[in-house]
Design a protein that fits this description.
NAD(P)-bd_dom_sf; alpha/beta; single chain; SDR; 255 residues; Rossmann fold; Short-chain dehydrogenase/reductase SDR; Sc_DH/Rdtase_CS
Length: 255
């Protein structure tokens, strides 16, 4: 009988953008539970402090690095500070992103660009800053948080679907670029999860019931499930998985 699989990320440093709430917070806590040191990146210092304090209180190691990941100068400063604190990180999770829902003709150029920048440009800047430190080590993990909206879409999502589909293409190309280095690059495409982003639906019993009835599994995703998947992709067990995107959506896109 083989031993039970245990994911141990001790000795690894994980950089997580958009770490102040939701899925970024959940993944950060999961990495810390698995033994990794976590560099928490976002703009909201107060919320980052709360996540850091929760990780430390649970016995983990984390530090916050505040900045705007759509800014080239901010990302450079964050990369320098993270490396000074922890050394070159082995894991990067590009989780930052925003969404504006409106019809195409209602979008301003600035609004459309802001959605694209928050997902695609931030991922380019952060990956470019940290990937060089992974090269030559034989191990590295990049996870880009795509979305089911990279595979399907809904009205009012022209900017968001464009950003996430572009991010999926970036993920595949970078995976091929780094495959010979022992560095994997994958996407995670979440469906509906029980985060504050979906609070308006979750807090309306009638609307919530209607929505859940449309989901094959009949429930919201648990943020811990995203954390577990991210930890697996960053483990030695997942070294043969690269250039792909994993849908974690309760069967939504299978309908």
């Amino acid at each position: 009988m083989g031993s039970t699989m245990k994911i141990d990320l001790t000795g690894k440093t994980a950089v997580v953008t958009g770490a102040s709430r939701g899925l970024g917070e959940a993944m950060s806590k999961s990495f810390a539970e698995a033994g990794a040191q976590v560099a928490l990146v976002a703009r909201n210092v107060a919320k980052l402090e709360g996540v850091r304090d929760a990780i430390v209180a649970a016995g983990g190691v984390a530090e916050l690095f505040a900045g705007d990941v759509t800014s080239e100068s901010d990302v450079a400063a964050i990369a320098e500070a993270v490396t000074k604190k922890f050394g070159a990180p082995q894991i990067v999770v590009n989780n930052a992103g925003s969404n504006i829902r409106k019809s195409l003709v209602e979008f301003t150029l600035e609004e459309f660009k802001s959605v694209m920048d928050s997902s695609l440009i931030s991922t380019f800047l952060v990956s470019r800053a940290f990937v060089p430190g992974m090269k030559g080590t034989g191990y590295g993990r990049v996870i880009n948080m795509t979305s089911i909206m990279a595979h399907i879409s809904l009205p009012g999502r022209t900017a968001y679907s464009s950003a996430k589909a572009s991010l999926l293409g970036f993920t595949r190309s970078l995976a091929l670029e780094l495959a010979g280095e022992g560095i994997t690059v994958n996407g995670i495409s979440p469906g509906p999860f029980g985060t504050e982003m979906n609070a308006a639906v979750m807090n309306n019993p009638e609307v919530n019931a209607q929505f859940l009835a449309s989901l094959p599994v009949g429930r919201w995703g648990k943020v811990e499930e995203i954390g577990a998947l991210a930890c697996y992709l960053c483990s030695d067990y997942a070294g043969f998985i690269t250039g792909t995107d994993i849908l974690i959506d309760g069967g939504w896109t299978a309908k």
